[in-house]
Amino acid sequence: MAAARRGAVGLIYVAPAVVFVGVFLIYPIVELVRMSMTSASLLGGGEYVGFKNYIKAYNDTTFWHAIWFTSKYTLVITPILIGAGFALALLAAERSRFARWTRAVVFMPVIIGLGSSSLMWVWLFDEQVGLVNKLLVDLGIIHQPMVWFADGTMGLWAVTISIVWKVVGYGMLLMLAGIQSLGTDIFEAAVIDGASYWRRVMHITLPLTTRTIALTTLVSAIGSMLAFDQFYIMTGGAPRGETFTTVYWIYQNSFIYFKLGYGAALSLVLMLIIFVASGIHIYLTRRGGRA
């Protein structure tokens, strides 16, 4: 009787979480799968079409170009975020007034809305009144203002700079927590043994925060694969669709072309790609941890 009562109490405790997962995760995925097999339109209606949307996605060159561009963006920005975040975390971990200011200044952009920060950077990169071009000209790096968003590569780097400024503080915070959880005994012993600061970083801090760095890398990579707002506001997919991200193309099909069924199929393909990539990352991280 007591065991049954404890089981009932346990079910009551987990019921809110089960309901939340069912309503906001399982049901939307099931509905997405159902919709991906129909010709559903934003205007209503639609009929069952089986796997035609997936066949169309397989032959959609724009979609695969968007996948390639998004992957390139992820491969470019993720190492920058991790490297800069770790360096800033080391700086912020020091016990000084400057370190406290570093935490505040670097983390402040994180709380700014992505739409607001993207609009701000559009003005900063403007070829006529933008501060970035003025600084580069004054420093002699370029001879005349650049049109950043007229070229796919320059547009990619412009967005990358804006996003690094916006979110590097989040990675810094995660890695700072990992560094501060290490304790001081091992560092004090290393100092007594004559280890320099960089030796302590390379042989103590870095190896012991590997899991935190791996988690930050995974979060950053997933966020980059889902990039939309910054490209929608800053480049609009220009020039000639060169800066179309995967989510941007899904948005175009679902809400501009009214093809909700096809957009659902593209969303599931993207979800599968992220799921597989995340699984490989977790497997390699665990395997490296056991080595």
Task: Explain what you see.
With 291 residues, the protein is an all-alpha fold. It folds into two domains: 1-36, no CATH class; 52-290, MetI-like fold (Orthogonal Bundle), CATH 1.10.3720. 75% of the residues lie in helices and 0% in strands. It has 13 helices and no strands. The protein has helices at residues 2-36, 52-58, 61-92, 97-107, 114-124, 131-138, 152-180, 185-192, 197-208, 210-225, 229-234, 246-256, 260-290. Helix 3 crosses helix 7, helix 3 (61-92) runs antiparallel to helix 10 and helix 7 (152-180) packs antiparallel against helix 10. The radius of gyration is 24 Å and the shape is flat. The termini are far apart.
Q: What is the residue-averaged pLDDT?
A: 91
- How many helical stretches? 13
CATH superfamily of the largest domain: MetI-like
CATH second-level architecture of the largest domain: Orthogonal Bundle
Largest sheet geometry: none
> What is the CATH fold-level name of the largest domain?
MetI-like fold
For the record, what CATH class of the largest domain applies? Answer: Mainly Alpha
Structural class label:
mainly alpha
What proportion of the residues is helical, as a percent range? over 70%
Proportion of strand residues: under 5%
Number of domains: 2
Shape, principal axes of CA atoms? flat
Low-pLDDT stretches are: none
- Pattern of helices and strands: HHHHHHHHHHHHH
- Total E-strand runs: 0
Distance between the termini: 48 Å
The Rg value, from CA coordinates, equals 24 Å
